[in-house]
Amino acid sequence: MKPQGTQLSLFETRSTSDPFAVRVSPRARRLTARVHVGGSVEIVVPIGVNPKAVREFVQRFSPWINRKVAAMKCLAESGDAVPKEVDFTLTGERFEVLMARAPTRSLKQRDGRLVVQAPDDRGARALLQDWLKEAARERLTPPLMRLAEELNCPISRVAIRRQRTRWGSCSTRGTLSLNCSLVFLRREVVRYLFIHELAHTRHMNHSPSFWRLVEKLEPDCRRLDRELLAGWRTVPLWVFEH
């Protein structure tokens, strides 16, 4: 969640030509494999783990990784180029998407409907992605600011971004960044993410003191953290497509 970590070179770990992205994260407590929609694989590595241990981990879990890659590729292939509807798990809202071909691009929200005009699917997705960021800003910023005041964790600015690998981050200048895809997660999980990032206003690291504070503010943090890490599978494919 914090913008720390080292991106290692890609390297081969299976008998195929599929590379794995390996990321060293100060937040990681153990080696984990993440398979994203489309089939790309990221291995998250705690600080201090050597490449040999990473290769052994991937080889040991290759059967599971292969199954997940196949499933995620199928999910990507079955996804709509332009969605017929958008569901926000966070608020329980549902928006019907009405797409029309037109030489100019526009998006208008009317009575729970998104009327999209664009010359092609790519243009329509771009409009929806811009709309998603603004919709997320309206739904995420107010509860975050209220919680920051309640916990006495002041922040100077909230930024909404569309990222593939990070749900949130907190800078040393007090800017708290949130992923617009949080609207596709349960309210309890989003609140935990808020708590996690607000705790960084007191501890700009993932030290034992940081985790003690998080657990104090959210006793069920371990379960919610696991759900947050798995939350990428709930994000619609169109959010990331170009």
Question: How would you describe what is shown here?
Answer:
Mean pLDDT is 85; it is low at 1-18. Helix 4 crosses helix 6. It is built from 6 helices and 12 strands. The two termini are 24 Å apart. It has helices at residues 51-60, 62-78, 121-150, 187-199, 208-217, 221-229; strands at residues 6-7, 11-12, 19-24, 32-35, 41-45, 85-88, 93-101, 106-110, 113-118, 157-161, 168-170, 175-179. The protein has 2 domains: 6-78, no CATH class; 85-239, Metalloproteases ("zincins"), catalytic domain (Zincin-like, 2-Layer Sandwich), CATH 3.30.2010.10. By secondary structure, the chain is an alpha/beta fold. The strands form 3 sheets. Strands 1, 2, 3, 4 and 5 form a 5-stranded mixed beta sheet that branches.
Briefly characterize the structure.
The protein contains 6 helices and 12 strands. With 242 residues, it is α/β, with parallel strands linked by helices.
List the helices and strands and how they pair.
Blueprint (H helix, E strand, L loop, with lengths): L5 E2 L3 E2 L6 E6 L7 E4 L5 E5 L5 H10 L1 H17 L6 E4 L4 E9 L4 E5 L2 E6 L2 H30 L6 E5 L6 E3 L4 E5 L7 H13 L8 H10 L3 H9 L13
Parallel strand pairs: 3-5, 7-9, 10-12
Antiparallel strand pairs: 1-3, 2-3, 4-5, 6-7, 8-9, 11-12
Q: Which CATH architecture of the largest domain? A: 2-Layer Sandwich
- Overall geometric form: globular
CATH fold topology of the largest domain? Zincin-like
Percent of residues in β-strands: 15-25%
CATH class category label of the largest domain = Alpha Beta
The average pLDDT score comes to 85
Report the uncertain regions.
1-18
- Helix-residue proportion: 25-40%
- Give the N-terminus to C-terminus distance in angstroms: 24 Å
Query: How many domain regions?
Result: 2
Largest β-sheet summary: 5 strands, mixed
| Rg | 19 Å
Order of helices and strands: EEEEEHHEEEEHEEEHHH
Helical segment count: 6
Structural class: alpha/beta
CATH-level-4 superfamily name of the largest domain: Metalloproteases ("zincins"), catalytic domain
